[in-house]
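Any chance you could type out some protein's one-letter sequence along with its backbone structure tokens so I can compare the two?
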Amino acid sequence: MPDEIAQRYIRNPGPKVPVSGLKAAASTDNAIVTEAVLKMLEAGGNAVDAALTACLLQPAVEPFMTNHTGTVTFLYWEAATGKLHQLDSVGTMPDGLAPFRPIPPIGGGLGATGPVACIPGFMPGLKAIYERFATKPWADLCQDAIRWAEEGHPVSTFEYGMNLGSQDFITYFPEGRAFYMPDGFWVPVGERFGSKPMAEMLRRVAEEGPDYMITGGWADKLIAKSNEMGWPITKDHMVETPPRWIEPVRFKHRDHEIVGLAPPQQQGVFCSLVLGILAHLGIGDTEPGSAEHIFYMAHALRFAQYHCGFMGDPAVADYSIEQLLDDDFHRIGAKLIKGMKPKLDLTDHVLLTGKPGGGAFSNSSPGRPTGGISRKPPTGSCELAIVDRHGNWVQMMNTLQAGGIPGMVIDGVPMIGTHTSFGGLTGFMDAKVIKGTRMRCVIGNTIVLKDGVPVFSLGTPGNVHYTVPQVLTYLLDFKMSPYQASDAPRMLALDEDGSVTIEDRVSPDAIRGLARMGVQVRALPPYDYHMGSFQMCYRDPATGLLGASADPRRCGVADGLR
């Protein structure tokens, strides 16, 4: 393929350039997608038209991150009314059927389970959003996706590495091998990877609408293949739990109001817990990256993760989430965490007991792969941040997670299924096998208001629940710029062994300070793509003009219209 195409569209992880002075703004995970978003906005489409165009296109150019059967979540500020809207269209469990796992796990110890098949949420979600807020003809929104599926996109080093890392799962079935390795090999970096079957499927979607994949011809093929494999779904299962419009969670933080996804998504409540606790701990008075900042953040993340186990889908139970949002509860959490700061110097304790081999700083991290074979499904996702000229803001995720038959490909549509649990108290994803219920999950679409109007819009894949409150803290408590906030080091919650895992950009003083408080630091790479990729739009309060930024950890591109 011509070198200029690869040079134009391949963006590998690395430093990104934010843009400002815009009348319309966009940040997506891919240069091709950002270009298509701006083209739709320039043609008179609104932010929703542009977001739907992006969602249809993204699986064609990033099939290692998303697909047309996974999950859609949507947070929308409607400028004409000043109202906020949330849609949840995570994949669902078919009523009355036991979890279906067609790919057995290798290793993982006693009780290991494989990924679970589920009913796709992607097209039902797009259909619901389109019918309520879009302005352009549906077929127009499909054209870029058809073109790039047909012609193929240039493969980046990031995509090549992601495919290799997932190959035991995505090539388990012959259909997967034929899709990802069309000539028996992975498509090399810089060459084009496309799918004519996907292009033909998208043409049918353009002609017949999203129902082609919900109750039409593609759905018939999914049902037939599922039944053949032993998963006895019917057409009724495809529509028994439709997407749900929800009033999002809103809470105050300093002089801003934060809007996040409400249950069954746990992220809005999670952010309220973390930021509320940190406010009572005086996080804004600490130094970013200091031992005190890391200690407080790691403990607050752990506290929030545990307590989010007390919530779930309101269709299942009358969860008392108002208690989790209560400032008095946050004050109690802060007191508990402050009380855990040791009075003694615990450096020797950390040096003698740290793993592996002792020491305050280690190059291993809990939960990261250390060898062997895994058939866990990939965990990629794509976040979109878009603001149009009329002041409509969209923060949206589309993801390969939670849709279809794990590892199977039908008409150019690869599927991943889900790694949800079924009764997990503090798990990141949990589902009930009952009609009308939706998964508890951790997707992080977030809009920040000041004086009643949006000033920031942000979200990310990759350890979403932990990383969103960290970036909000960098933005609102430490007053960093949007790009600085997404560039700054990110961490996981305090682990059960008392260690904290963080990107390897921590000062020696902070490591020594944490050791004195009994905390061992475990190193991730300096910029770890598992820690997310924030797509962010923002408004300059002085000029009213817009800006956008993309995260250095993945392949995002921010741009806009002037």
